[in-house]
Design a protein that fits this description.
Blueprint (H helix, E strand, L loop, with lengths): L7 H15 L6 H8 L3 H4 L6 H12 L12 H13 L4 H10 L6 H9 L6 H27 L14 H13 L6
Helix pairs in contact: 1-2, 1-4, 4-6, 5-7, 5-8, 6-8, 7-8, 8-9
C-alpha cells in the first residue's frame, strides 16, 4: 500500500481532531505525524513550525465568524466569535497564542471592526472586544475542563454561572453599545 499524501488542509483537520481528543498541551508535531502515519519531518513540508500550524488551526476555528459587514449587529458578531472559540477544546488558547504572535488572519477583528464601524475608534474597540472575548472563552474552557476531570465542583461560586450576562455586559462596555441581542 502506498503511503497516503497529505496537504495543509488534512494536517489541520488532524490537528483539530487531536486538539479535541488530547487538548493543546498534548498536541505535538510528533503526535500529529503519528496520527497521519508519516514522519514528523513530513509536516514541515506544509508548515515551517508548530506555531504556523497552530495559526492555520486558529484560522479554521474562526472560519465560522461571519464576513465583515457594516450592517451586522456587533453583539451577534461577538457571540459568533465566542461560539467559534468554544467549538473546540482549548480553541480560545490556540487563537490567543496565534493572536499574541500576530500569526493567522484577523478575521474576527475585521468582523468586529466592521460591525462597530459607525463608532469612533472602531478598530481599537474591536481589538478590545476581541481580547475580552478571548479571555472570557479561555476562562469558560478552563472551568469546563476542570469540571470534566473532577478538579472543581459546579457550585454557586462558579465564575461561569452568569457567563452570558457577564459576556454581554463586557461587550457592551468595551464596544460602547447596548446589551440587546
Amino acid at each position: 500500500m502506498a503511503p497516503s499524501r497529505h496537504d495543509r488542509h488534512s494536517v489541520i483537520d488532524c490537528a483539530l481532531r487531536l486538539l479535541d481528543d488530547v487538548g493543546l498541551p498534548d498536541l505535538s508535531m510528533r503526535r500529529i505525524a503519528t496520527e497521519l502515519e508519516v514522519q514528523p519531518s513530513a509536516l514541515y513540508w506544509h508548515f515551517p513550525n508548530k506555531q504556523v500550524l497552530l495559526a492555520g488551526v486558529a484560522d479554521r476555528i474562526l472560519a465560522a465568524v461571519p464576513e465583515p459587514d457594516s450592517s451586522a449587529d456587533p453583539m451577534r458578531v461577538a457571540h459568533a466569535v465566542l461560539d467559534a472559540l468554544l467549538t473546540y477544546r482549548d480553541g480560545a488558547e490556540v487563537v490567543m497564542s496565534t493572536y499574541a504572535l500576530r500569526l493567522g488572519t484577523p478575521r474576527a477583528q475585521r468582523a468586529l471592526s466592521a460591525a462597530l464601524g459607525a463608532l469612533p475608534d472602531h478598530d481599537v474597540r474591536a481589538d478590545a472586544a476581541f481580547e475580552f472575548i478571548l479571555g472570557h472563552a479561555t476562562l469558560l474552557q478552563q472551568r469546563m475542563h476542570a469540571q470534566s476531570i473532577g478538579a472543581v465542583e459546579s457550585d454557586a461560586d462558579d465564575p461561569t454561572v452568569h457567563s452570558d450576562a457577564v459576556f454581554d455586559a463586557g461587550i457592551s462596555a468595551l464596544a460602547g453599545i447596548g446589551a440587546t441581542r
